[in-house]
Records
---
Amino acid sequence: MPERLDERPLSALPSPAARAAAFAAILLGGLAGGLIGYSLVRVQCDGECGFGKGLGAFIGAVAAAIGMSVVAILVLRALGEWKTIEDRRQSGGGGAQP
């Protein structure tokens, strides 16, 4: 039986564009968290606070990037499930009905 040209192998990987968007979102979230951490220490500190500002920026960036990575993973998984359901509907295999 010849294979159809529009069939693609099953894969759990999201599209490269979706992965790139998730990576950019994680970087942007880390940047925002670093700025927030730096600003919190800067507002509360008097005198020489270079180490504190750096530590606040580092902790804020890491915490925000970790949180954003969790969100990105959940979004990528949801996109994968949505694509699977749409493929089943188009092929007539059933699936969840709205």
---
Amino acid sequence: MAPTPRRATGCFPAISALAVTIAFAAALGGCGSRLGDITGSVTTPNPDTSPRQRAADIAARYQAQPGNPEIAIEYARVLRASGQRAQAVAVLQQASMQAPRNQAVLAEYGRALAEAGHYQQALEVMSKAHTPDQPDWRLLNAQGAVLDQMGNHAEARRYYETALKIAPAEPTILSNLGLSYALSKELVRAEQTLRRAVAQTGADIRVRQNLALVLGLQGKFAEAEKIAASDLPPDEARANVAYLREMLKQRDPLKTISAPKKPKRV
């Protein structure tokens, strides 16, 4: 098993965001294997309120108004952020039953299902959250990431390509597409796609770390380590480089990002 970087903000774990950049990436939301934001934040948190207090506040609001879809979405996000994935799924399942045509609820429900490892159900729910005549590129990107987690790389890429028609050169889509090529061992195409992603305005550290991984897989260690150490304070940079080195020692490093994840507290 590959070691975990010293801090959660050291983003090599975000390569597993192929689920689900992910960012499952905005599709990669934050370091981790979460599907990115699809509907946006429901409320603006008070910066003077602690995360624990905000969580308590939204839990109280949910208990008072369990039928309010916006509150259910916000509460589920709090639960997911604290690792309570099964509870988040339960909250959104109830919300989807009460508001079966609410696309924001369905989108969030699909994300929560995917994060909990219920991939087939996630795809079914996501397909109801947007329509062919009004597709959402974020959902298409997320659906592609789920299919990659299921090993259906060719189908996943069709979703990414459709998403790119709506949001050309969007770095989170390109990042997931690049990782999809990496998972099928097409490393040259993966590198080309990830370099294109990195060159886009808005590309963040997670996209660059994905490029570093693919460069390392091809033996381009000097450039990979330079990228792995960029954007970070020295201690986190050292942790990322160490993680990269250990990961690349594995017999099949790509299993780190392709193996389905069981729900667990983080």
---
Amino acid sequence: MAGERNTNTPAVQGAGQALDQFKWEIANGMGVQLGGDRTSRENGRVGGEMTKRMIQYAEQNLSSGQRI
């Protein structure tokens, strides 16, 4: 609902701040303004791009034999 705070917790303690920074970097790069007054589509594009980049990062590191 409108005005509710996100209650999701990152799997790794302390990763929340890094994920928030990553989210804002992605949004700025895409020219999207995040916020409750924006559409789900606009906000969702940022989350989708974050997921895409995290998967690419993981695939690159797994294919080179590095642990993530």
